[in-house]
Write a structure and sequence with these properties.
Layout lengths: L1 E5 L2 E5 L5 H7 L23 E4 L6 E4 L10 E3 L3 H17 L4 H9 L19 H9 L6 E3 L6 E3 L14 H5 L9 H10 L7 H5 L17 H9 L4 H24 L1
Parallel strand pairs: 1-5
Antiparallel strand pairs: 1-2, 3-4, 3-5, 6-7
Helix pairs in contact: 2-3
The structure holds iron/sulfur cluster (2 copies) and FE2/S2 (inorganic) cluster.
Length: 259
């Protein structure tokens, strides 16, 4: 176990824990935007910035991706931290002035209007959608395209994806609501591309082979109802767990027969 001090409170956590998780253990809430429990940290938005007290100089780090160390002293609401977070939220508010999640953050910090030129976008480029599609679903239907000011999330060549399985995980993890799930669009894409109408959950690996018998109207389908009722999170995270468990089972079996 590692012992450290967060906002002058002592806490002991397992080695390899992030500052975000250690703070959570003390009930200290640190704001995040590009972090999701089911994904490895990415450190893109920097909203979770905290200050580490050093012998000579203090350091500003992202709590979601910085690991605890023995005797570490951390401040989560120092003047420097609040100033840095305020600046980040101002930038985001200028980029996405109509997004509720950003407006709520700005309200909490007392920011009425950003000092920067406003745009009217809905994506903050946090990368959660791209990462969940790549790293959890294992599909890679979307990615970042262009560079600089034109950077955005899209499918390759802005075309209907022939690999998307319609799981909706991108929409589920998006903190701004920039991605809306349209199941009839999934159906249209699959028709357009001449792909078999497999059930989304079959494509996710949660049910054995099944062709959709309900015209992709999941909201009135028993299969969808049953799966959603049995899970506490988005099905794609459960599917990943099942896959990991299966791989682990396979390795334990392999280990046994090799002994
Ligand atoms: S669409 Fe949503 S999840 Fe994807 S990068 Fe933009 S804000 Fe993040
Ligand atoms: S409507 Fe039912 S069978 Fe079809 S994709 Fe949705 S959950 Fe699967
Ligand atoms: S939540 Fe830590 S950098 Fe975005």
């Amino acid at each position: 176990m590692i012992t450290l001090f967060i906002d002058n409170q002592k806490v002991a956590v397992k080695e390899g824990t992030t500052l975000l998780k250690a703070s959570e253990k003390l009930g200290i809430e640190i704001p995040t935007l590009c972090y999701h429990e089911g994904l490895p940290p990415y450190g893109a938005c920097r909203l979770c910035v905290v200050e580490i007290i050093g012998e000579k100089k203090n350091r500003m780090v992202a709590a979601c991706s910085f690991l605890v160390d023995e005797g570490m002293k951390v401040l989560t609401i120092s003047d420097r931290v609040l100033k840095r977070r305020r600046m980040i939220v101002e930038f985001l508010l200028a980029r996405c002035p109509d997004i509720k999640a950003i407006r709520d953050l700005a309200d909490k910090m007392g920011i009425k209007k950003p000092r920067f030129k406003t745009k009217n976008l809905d994506c903050i480029l946090c990368g959660l959608c791209v990462r969940v599609c790549n790293e959890v679903a294992g599909i890679g239907a979307i990615g970042f395209v262009n560079r600089g000011k034109k950077l955005k999330v899209d499918t390759p060549f802005h075309l209907a994806s022939d690999v998307c399985i319609g799981c909706g995980a991108c929409s589920f993890v998006c903190p701004t609501g920039a991605i809306e799930m349209e199941l009839d669009a999934v159906k249209r894409f699959r028709e357009l591309l001449g792909i078999e109408h497999k059930c989304r959950y079959s494509l996710m690996g949660l049910v054995s082979y099944k062709v959709c018998s309900n015209n992709y109207e999941c909201w009135r389908c028993k299969v969808d109802q049953r799966i959603r009722d049995s899970l506490a999170t988005h099905p794609i995270f459960a599917a990943k767990k099942i896959k990991t468990e299966k791989v682990n089972q396979y390795f334990s079996f392999l280990k046994k027969i090799q002994e």
